[in-house]
Structure formats: C-alpha cells, structure tokens
C-alpha cells in the first residue's frame, strides 16, 4: 500500500527519495509524488500512474533540494488523480500520509466552515489543513502537529516538512513508520518501510504511537529527536540497526520476482530447518515443549489465513490441541470469546496488516498471550507480540505470496513438533529435507507445467478442490490464480461440490483436483462427478495411478511418499507454477497485479 520516504541532509534529497519510492513500488500503488523544499517554496511534483511518470517529470528538470518527501499512493479516499496524489501542500507545509483518517468528513466540514479551502478529495489533506490552522494559532510546528494528531481518528502515519526549516517531522498511530540516521553523511530519513532505507540509514528507530519524530541535519551531525504529544522528550521508540540487504531487489535470472521467489523455496526450507532444529531458533521452540493451551486463536488474512488452516491441522491432529482459525477482519468485530489460558496466534508476512494487528491488540486488551508467525523482524506485529516465530523468508517482493506461505506453514509444523518434544527426532529433519528435494525437482522441471497452462488458460473459470489437509491448498491455489491471472477461481472442499458449486460445471470450467493418497477413493469419486458434467479435469495426484490417467484430461503425477504432513506444501508449489504460467499467457502484471497491495495497512 502507500509508501513514504523523507530525507533531510547535505545531499540532494531527490536521489534517495526516488530510490526509496522505487524500492516500495512492490507494495502496490496508483500514483506518486514528491515535495522538494527550496529557499522560497515547497515545490510539489506528482503524477497518477507508475513511478516512471513522476521520474520523467523529475528528469526533465534540474531539481535539487536538501529536504524532500515522497509518496506512492494506493487510493482509499478520492479517485486516482494527480490532485489526489500526495504530497499535499500549501505555502507553509507539505504532508504525506499512509492510512485512513476516519473522521475526515466531519473535520473537513468544520474546517471549511472556518474558511479553510481544500484542493483534493483526500482525507489526508485534512491533516495538512489542521497543522496549518494550529500553526497559525501557536506559531510552533511541533505544537501544531501534536494538536492536529489529537483531532484525528484511525490508523495513520504522517510525514511533514515546512517552508521555514529543513526539519523532517513524522508521527503515527498503528501504521508503519521508521526513522533513520546516517551519522557519517549527516543525513536524516523517515520511511514507512526499513527496506527503503537500506544503504542510506544504518541507524533506525521505530517510534511508538503518538511519538513525534523530528529529524534534522546540522553542520556537525544528523539528529533524530523524539517528543511526546505534550512535547516533553520521549523514550518510547526502539533503536535498531538496519540489517536488511539489497539481494532481494535483484530478480537474478528470473523474469519475475514471483518466479524467483518460488524457486527460492527449497533453499529457504533447508535454512529454516537448520535454524529451528539445530541453530539459533532452537531455544525459541524449546520453550514450547509440553505447552498446553485451551485454545489457539489463529487470525490472519488471505494467504496467511490459508497457512493458518494448514497449521490448525497440525495442532489438532498431532498435538490434540484446539485451534480456531479466523479471518482477521471477521474476528476483530465478532466480540470473540477469549479466556485467560488461551493464546492468540497471528500469521503475517509483512507484520503490518491492519486487521491482523487489530486482532492482536484485541487479544492483548483481553489479557491473553499473543504469538506471531511473521517474516518482517521489527514490524509492528513483531514488536507487539509476546513471542515471535520468524519465518526467515527474506524480502518477498512479488505481491502474490509464495515462499512466505511455505515458510509460515513450516514454522507452524516446527512449533507443533516442539510441543510434542520431537525436534530431535531424526525423522523430522529427513522429512523436511525430502520436502525441499521434491520441491527442487518440481522447480527443475517446472517448464513442463507450461504446456498444462497452455491447455487451460483460456477457460472461463477454475474450481480447485481438495479434502482434509489439501482443502486449504485448494483455497490457496484459487487465490493465487485469481490474483495474478484475473480469472474467476474458487477453492472448495471436494465433498462440498455437490452442495451447490457443481451447478457451475460445464465444458468451460476447469476442475483442478488435488487428490492425495489419503481419502483417495472418495476424492476420485468427486472428480468423476465433475467429469460426468463435462468439466475439464486436471488432477494433481499420486504417481502411477492408471485410473487417474483415464479420468483426467491432464494428470500431474507427484511422489507423495514419505512427505506425510508436509505434502500440502509440495502440491502447493505445483499450483504456484500453474498460476504463474497462466498469468504469463494472459500477459498480466505478475509482480504487481492490478488493484492489489503487498502490505494492506488499511482496514
Ligand atoms: C496473497 C497475498 C495476501 C496476503 C494478505 C496478508 O498472495 O499475498 O492475501 O497474504 O494480504 O498479508 P500479510 O501476510 O502481510 O499479513
């Protein structure tokens, strides 16, 4: 979703701000803008569409400024237009904003009554006008920001610059914000994502809600100061070192990040196994040995929710512990029944998904422990959890989540094994090694799946089916296909088809049926039902089964032997490739599919 980068220092802000925005492009956006502070003005350049459009404007001029802020906007309030793009500014201040000001309509009406004018349809401009109004009353920028912040409701991060100084100001509520400093080059930074600051700011700071950050570059140093809303100095921030590397920004030999990230999976699986079974992660898991809780409450969104459904099976079947898996945007509003001896478990790649964060807050308020399976160390989810189980997937740039899903599920599997005290059982390491080997084989032979995609990509709709542990994979396979290929796809429990969706089946519909060795006959019967109604049948099933050969239009044989509980992850990689190759044939923007954002920081 929206991305923010701000710079103040002796150099030209245009370069780090545009580079930072380029790094945040993967998050999804529909317009971009920059504000450059000069001696006599705050110059705003902004353009709808890709960052390239803004870059073209910048390249056509000779822009230089020591202080600048930039933004990539993912529209929430107001159409995708240059006017609604950020920054929003006037002669005194410029503002960029991530999030939503929930009471913007009421505030805007009041401000208009008071005679203030608005140039855009956005909620964000309300904050600009509030800061301007309170500055007129107080003559003090920090006071004005504090007063404006107190008026707004909802989750937001703001960065503000002013005409009268080279300072950067930032403040947030339940939205990602990082401040940074480079002591050597005397540069101060702010961003919505530490990824934008790699190589620019080695010292980074994560402020808590309601802490105003003020960055400045003096002739001797770069400084980041923190204030409470009453403007007393604040210590409510976490200082850290930016350890992220830029490796992830290269696609290597692959045409898309998604393809690269699918291919990274075997090596990442091996690394995660070593981390949790033998190395640094071991002590984190050892704490779970013998753990019993009355109920695990999993909440997550999208692909991460599907990961929760797979992990639920591990906890219930192997540990005989109850687990409830809910979509975060549902859980948070249903007044859930939570008791003390229960654990809230949050799954999130980004650690910044607004609904998931809200569920965590709700669990904390009710006094239950909160654990997270998360990729981004230092993210809001990470910082607010009692315990974190990192998935170590590295940066995932493709908007469609692939490697994160695999590693989320695997982390859940290790947790389940840790509860059973089975981490030292050599069978575990061998099983995981077998998984990475089989996935590596799939990757080596992936091009064979191009011909599968060619046969089905033009069909009208896709129904993915599976039973038991493959049901969540049917959901995930359908989600991956719809989000990157823009075709209608649904995931169903195979036994559920005849209760409604079978009405859709005709020769234009493809049934991608996951047929595991478990409940084999029953699942094959479901495939027969679809075949009888002229559906196109693709079976992803166990190898050497001649009857599948005779039923299926396309048979993708797999060796399930020895994978046991991990076989859903193996099957899922086949579905990742099928989605990828269908999207490629359709010519969509695979890494940045339309309307989607990598990190969904609004509710
Ligand atoms: C789908 C996808 C999304 C995310 C969801 C949650 O490919 O990526 O469904 O899984 O938006 O995001 P995180 O895991 O960052 O909380």
Give the strand tally: 24
Quick one: biggest sheet? Answer: 8 strands, antiparallel
**Distinct ligands:** fructose -6-phosphate
Tell me, what's the shape?
A: globular
- Helix count? 19
Termini separation (Å)?
Answer: 12 Å
Rg, alpha carbons: 25 Å
What is the percent of helical residues?
Answer: 25-40%
The proportion of strand residues reads 15-25%
The overall average pLDDT, rounded, is 95
Spatial strand order of the main sheet: 3-2-4-1-10-9-11-14
Query: Structural class per helix/strand content?
Result: alpha/beta
Low-confidence stretches: none
Summarize the structure.
By secondary structure, this protein is α/β, with parallel strands linked by helices. It is 36% helix and 23% strand. The structure holds fructose -6-phosphate.
Task: Write up what this structure looks like.
Helix 3 packs across helix 4, helix 4 crosses helix 5 and helix 15 crosses helix 19. This protein has 603 residues and is α/β, with parallel strands linked by helices. The longest helix has 20 residues. The radius of gyration is 25 Å and the shape is globular. Strands 3-2-4-1-10-9-11-14 form an 8-stranded antiparallel sheet, covered by helices on one side. A 6-stranded antiparallel sheet has the order 5-6-7-8-12-13, covered by helices on one side. Strands 16-15-17-18-19 form a 5-stranded parallel sheet, with helices on both faces. It has 19 helices and 24 strands. The structure holds fructose -6-phosphate. The site of fructose -6-phosphate has 15 residues, from helix 9 and helix 16.
């Amino acid at each position: 979703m929206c991305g923010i980068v701000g710079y103040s220092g002796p150099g030209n802000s245009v370069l780090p701000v545009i580079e930072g925005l380029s790094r945040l492009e993967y998050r999804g956006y529909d317009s971009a803008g920059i504000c450059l502070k000069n001696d006599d003005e705050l110059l705003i350049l902004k353009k709808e569409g890709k960052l390239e459009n803004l870059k073209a404007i910048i390249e056509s001029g000779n822009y230089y400024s020591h202080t600048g802020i930039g933004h990539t906007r993912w529209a929430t309030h107001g159409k995708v237009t240059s006017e609604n793009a950020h920054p929003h500014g006037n002669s005194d201040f410029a503002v960029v904003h991530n999030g939503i000001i929930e009471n913007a309509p009421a505030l805007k009406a009041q401000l208009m009554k008071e005679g203030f004018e608005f140039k855009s349809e956005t909620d964000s401009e309300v904050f600009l006008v509030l800061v301007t109004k309170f500055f007129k009353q107080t003559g003090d920028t920090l006071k004005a920001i504090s007063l404006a912040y107190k008026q707004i409701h909802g989750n937001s991060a703001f960065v503000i610059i002013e005409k009268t100084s080279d300072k950067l100001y930032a403040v947030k509520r339940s939205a990602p914000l990082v401040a940074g400093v480079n002591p050597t080059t005397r540069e101060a930074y702010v961003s919505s994502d530490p990824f934008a600051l790699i190589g620019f700011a080695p010292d980074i700071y994560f402020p808590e809600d309601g802490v105003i950050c003020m960055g400045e570059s003096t002739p001797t140093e770069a400084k980041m100061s923190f204030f409470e809303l009453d403007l007393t100095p604040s210590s409510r921030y976490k200082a850290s070192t930016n350890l992220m590397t830029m490796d992830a920004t290269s696609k290597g030999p692959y045409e898309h990040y998604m393809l690269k990230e699918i291919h990274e999976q075997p090596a990442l699986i091996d690394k995660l196994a070593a981390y949790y079974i033998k190395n640094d992660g071991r002590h984190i898991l050892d704490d779970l040995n013998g753990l019993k809780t009355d109920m695990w409450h999993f909440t997550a969104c999208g692909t991460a929710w599907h990961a929760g459904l797979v992990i639920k099976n591990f906890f219930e079947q192997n540990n005989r512990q109850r687990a409830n898996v809910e979509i975060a945007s549902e859980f948070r509003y249903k007044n859930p029944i939570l008791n003390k001896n229960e654990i809230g478990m949050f799954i999130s790649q980004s650690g910044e998904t607004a609904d998931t964060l809200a569920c965590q807050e709700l669990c904390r308020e009710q006094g239950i422990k909160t654990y997270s399976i998360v990729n981004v160390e230092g993210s809001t989810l990470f910082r607010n959890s009692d315990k974190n189980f990192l998935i170590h997937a590295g940066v995932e740039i493709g908007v469609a989540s692939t490697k994160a899903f695999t590693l989320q599920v695997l982390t859940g599997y290790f947790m389940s094994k840790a509860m059973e005290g089975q981490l030292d059982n050599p069978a575990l390491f061998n099983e995981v090694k077998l998984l990475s080997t089989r996935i590596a084989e799939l990757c080596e032979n992936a091009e064979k799946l191009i011909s599968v995609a060619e046969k089905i990509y033009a069909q009208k709709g896709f129904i993915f089916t599976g039973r038991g542990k493959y049901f969540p994979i049917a959901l995930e396979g359908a989600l991956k296909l719809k989000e990157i290929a823009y075709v209608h796809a649904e995931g169903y429990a195979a036994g559920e088809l005849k209760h409604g969706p079978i009405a859709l089946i005709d020769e234009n519909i493809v049934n991608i049926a996951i047929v595991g060795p478990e409940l084999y006959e029953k699942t094959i019967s479901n495939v027969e039902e679809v075949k009888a109604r002229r559906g196109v049948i693709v079976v992803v099933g166990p190898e050497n089964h001649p009857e599948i050969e005779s039923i299926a239009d396309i048979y993708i044989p797999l060796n399930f032997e020895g994978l046991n509980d991990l076989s859903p992850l193996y099957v899922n990689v086949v579905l990742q490739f099928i989605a990828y190759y269908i999207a490629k044939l359709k010519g969509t923007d695979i890494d940045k599919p339309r309307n989607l954002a990598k990190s969904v920081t609004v509710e």
